[in-house]
Amino acid sequence: MGCTASVPDPDDQDPFLMDKRVNAAINQSLQSNRKNSKNQVSLLLLGAGESGKSTVLKQLRLLHKGGFSDQERIQYGHVIWVDAIQSMKILIVQARALGIRLDCDDWSGSLYQYKRMVLKANALQQIDTSIAGGNNFLNEYVLKYSEVRRAKRRQNSTGIANNSFWDDNNSPRTGNNDRIVEEEVEAADAEVNGINGTTEKYSRSQIAEAIDMLWKYDSGIQQCFHRSNEFQLESNAAYYFEKIYEFAKPNYLFTNSDILKGRIKTTGITETNFHINSFKFKVLDAGGQRSERKKWIHCFDNITAILFVVAISEYDQTLFEDERVNRMHETLVLFDSLCNSRWFLNTAFILFLNKIDLFETKFSPQSLHKYFNDFTGNTVEDGISYFEKKFLAINKTNKPIYVHRTCATDSTSMKFVLSAVTDMIIEDNLRKSGLI
Ligand SMILES: Nc1nc2c(ncn2[C@@H]2O[C@H](COP(=O)(O)OP(=O)(O)O)[C@@H](O)[C@H]2O)c(=O)[nH]1
Ligand SMILES: [Mg+2]
Fold first, then answer.
1. Residue 178 pLDDT > 80, yes or no?
2. Among 82, 109, 344, 363, which is least packed by CB within 10 angstroms?
3. Was 5 annotated as part of a binding site?
4. Does the structure show a pLDDT above 90 at 350?
């Protein structure tokens, strides 16, 4: 009583009905996945090193994540201060290499003392390296500013433009690694401790004065700066020099603009999550230099859109990794391999022609023609549309490529660009999920 024997339901045995139930379950699961995925967007920032990927990410953070913490402002302050000193040192040293006569070379002139001061200033003694980024910062510092490393970079490279994210032909030869690390540590020690006895400790205001005087009054420094495409110099060195007195003030709090103009090299892949109009955006920012690119493939799955950043102003510059390779040539090869890759046949592609401000400043038809001899135009606009067409012609797939001309350091214009981009990505995602 009260107990009923379980009698097998005849429907359970019916293969047709069983199939129907399985299908219904699959559909339900697909629908719920779609509902989730329609609200989730993964955006991957790609492009060569120093093209502006992390700056775009900074702008997204300003717009959607409340900006930068005080800790970050202090960190960027340290990094910019060091880069300002080193950039002026580089101009002095490179002038010699390029045969440019500097006013400050004249030991009886008033600028001589400032040159001595900059060359003898120990940039690392000026800051707290642990706040600037600890070991990562020091490694990057040594890599950037050691002449020894410059020779190594070339030795370990093939000297040709390369997409190098499938293989690691360009990674340092393993046998040399230990020696390279040792040399880096030695070079860093020499800088930090002034082992070679060539450094002196100056106050920030003394250094600011020296940099300002050389920048404003040494015509050779200006000449050398205008040839900075021939060596490696921070994109925004001029900005650092112009604001050097402000940066030297002990209580100066680095502004959003300063942080946008500062550079900390990205290594590995960073993930930042945003909420934009009830959508979850996951933005992946990858290091762009050759040795970093082989990590890219690990995040190629489930990408909604690729944002490829090109520094259009760098058409006359060479790679940091290999000074025999033109930056734009390498970027074109890289774009080809990504845009036409089987991974991204159906992935929305957005192209930022970035550093438009620097392009406008440096552009001359002759200089562009020198590096791209099929260029026949005259104006800045001709130059930009020449590159725009060049990139679009690379696309062999059916997907459209959305192009924007950008100055990633300018918050006002980036606000519009980024809102157009996020709207487009959201719409594209909804269409692909079959919801519009
Ligand atoms: N003037 C100017 N500088 C830019 C622009 N975009 C990026 N930069 C600077 O270029 C440097 C490298 O940018 P970053 O975003 O770190 O490049 P990434 O290596 O691609 O991540 C930084 O100092 C930025 O401030 C731009 O449109 N104009
Ligand atoms: Mg970066």
1. no
2. 109
3. no
4. yes
